[in-house]
Design brief:
With 154 residues, the protein is mainly alpha-helical. Helix content is 32%, strand content 8%. It is built from four helices and four strands, in the order H-E-E-E-E-H-H-H. The protein has a two-stranded antiparallel ribbon with strand order 1-4. A two-stranded antiparallel sheet has the order 2-3. A hairpin with a 2-residue loop joins strand 2 and strand 3. The N and C termini lie far apart (88 Å).
C-alpha cells in the first residue's frame, strides 16, 4: 500500500522535525556551554592543568563571560580558563592564527602596539602574540604622589 502526502503536509512535517532537532541541539549546546565542572582537565605544554572553583562549577553565563562594551571583549577573552585564568602568548598566537587577528583579544585600543595603525598588521600585535602583554594607557599621578619612578631603558 502506498500513501500519498501532499507537498504542503510533507513540508510541514519536515519543518517541524527539523525545528525540533534544532531546538534540541541548541539546548544541548547551551547546557554544555553554560557550566564547566571543577577539575576539568586542559592540556598545555607541561601536561594537564585543572581549575577549581570553591563555589562549584564555572557558570559561563555570568558577568565574567558577558561583553564589557562595544569591542566584543569579555573578562574571559583575556582570562582564559584553560590558561589558569591567565593569557599565554601561545594561546594568543593560536587565537590570532585562527581568526586572522579579528578576535576581540586584538582590539586596537590596547591589543595593538600602536592603536592608530590599520588592523591586520601582524607586527602591530607582537606584544600580545609573543608575550601575552597589553599596552594600557593610563594617566599617572604627579611624581610627588607616586611610590615609584619610571625611567627609559633602551
Amino acid at each position: 500500500m502506498v500513501c500519498k502526502i501532499s507537498k504542503g503536509i510533507h513540508f510541514r512535517v519536515r519543518f517541524r522535525v527539523g525545528l525540533a532537532l534544532s531546538i534540541m541541539a541548541a539546548i544541548a549546546t547551551t547546557v554544555a556551554a553554560v557550566t564547566l565542572p571543577n577539575l576539568f582537565p586542559f592540556r598545555d605544554s607541561s601536561g594537564l592543568m585543572e581549575t577549581f572553583n570553591a563555589t562549584g562549577k564555572f557558570q559561563e553565563n555570568g558577568p565574567f563571560f558577558q561583553s564589557l562594551g562595544t569591542n566584543g571583549r569579555t573578562c574571559a577573552t583575556c582570562h582564559v580558563v584553560g590558561n589558569a585564568m591567565g593569557l599565554s602568548a601561545a594561546s594568543a598566537e593560536s587565537v590570532y592564527e585562527r581568526t586572522n587577528g579579528h578576535d576581540p583579544l586584538f582590539a586596537k585600543v590596547d591589543g595593538a602596539v600602536c592603536p592608530t595603525t590599520t588592523a591586520g598588521n601582524a607586527l602591530n600585535f607582537d606584544l600580545v602574540r609573543h608575550y601575552g602583554l597589553f599596552r594600557i594607557a593610563i594617566q599617572l599621578p604627579p611624581a610627588a604622589n607616586t611610590q615609584f619612578k619610571i625611567t627609559a631603558v633602551h
